[in-house]
Specification:
The protein is an alpha+beta fold and 182 residues long. It folds into two domains: 80 residues, Periplasmic binding protein-like II (D-Maltodextrin-Binding Protein, domain 2), CATH 3.40.190; 95 residues, Periplasmic binding protein-like II (D-Maltodextrin-Binding Protein, domain 2), CATH 3.40.190.10. Helices cover 29% and strands 24% of the residues. The protein is elongated.
């Protein structure tokens, strides 16, 4: 595991004087269930108001862009093409992309799947979905797995990423200031 979240987690563990023990989930809905089961202490997750019932969040440390992955012959070739009657867009169930599209798409159909990297890819390659939605980095990694697939340029919206702790665990609450004292 690598990246900004891992770097922040290592530094956080160091500052708290505890071992760094990463827990990886394949899908956000599994991470959310892990919160209810007490499987983790601090998570790096998209900040969405619907999640504040179960978690407390720090200030956002990063905005992540989100877009579509499409096949070459897809009717969706730019961001504005997506929300049209008859278009089907696959998204990981419970992800911030699901929450955003459910509120904002008026004409396209949102298809919720357990994991965009497996069942979403199957829907796209079989023609049962016109596009996949995920953060841009994930889609850039998925695109080479499908001949002719492209990542649509631009961003649907930015997902603020923050540290989260399960409600009732006040010792885990942090602020950007406490993390920047390194």
């Amino acid at each position: 595991m690598r990246g900004i979240a891992v770097d922040i987690a290592r530094e956080l563990a160091k500052q708290l004087g505890v071992a760094f023990e990463p827990v990886r989930y394949k899908a956000v809905n599994q991470l959310l269930e892990g919160a209810k089961a007490g499987e983790w202490d601090v998570a790096f997750i998209g900040l969405d108001p619907t999640r504040t019932a179960d978690m407390d969040f720090t200030a956002a440390y990063l905005d992540v862009g989100n877009t579509y992955l499409v096949l070459a012959n897809s009717p969706i070739q730019n961001i504005g093409d997506a929300d049209r009657p008859g278009h089907r867009i696959a998204v990981t169930r419970g992800a911030t992309q699901d929450l955003f599209l459910s509120k904002n798409l008026k004409q396209a159909e949102v298809i919720r799947v357990p994991l965009i990297q497996t069942s979403g890819l199957e829907l796209l390659t079989s023609g049962k979905a016109h596009a996949l939605t995920e953060n841009t980095q994930v889609l850039v990694e998925l695109a080479p797995k499908i001949p002719g697939a492209t990542v649509v340029e631009g961003s649907i919206y930015g997902t603020p990423q923050a540290l989260a702790v399960v409600k009732g665990r006040p010792a885990g609450r942090l602020t950007r200031r406490s993390l920047s004292n390194t």
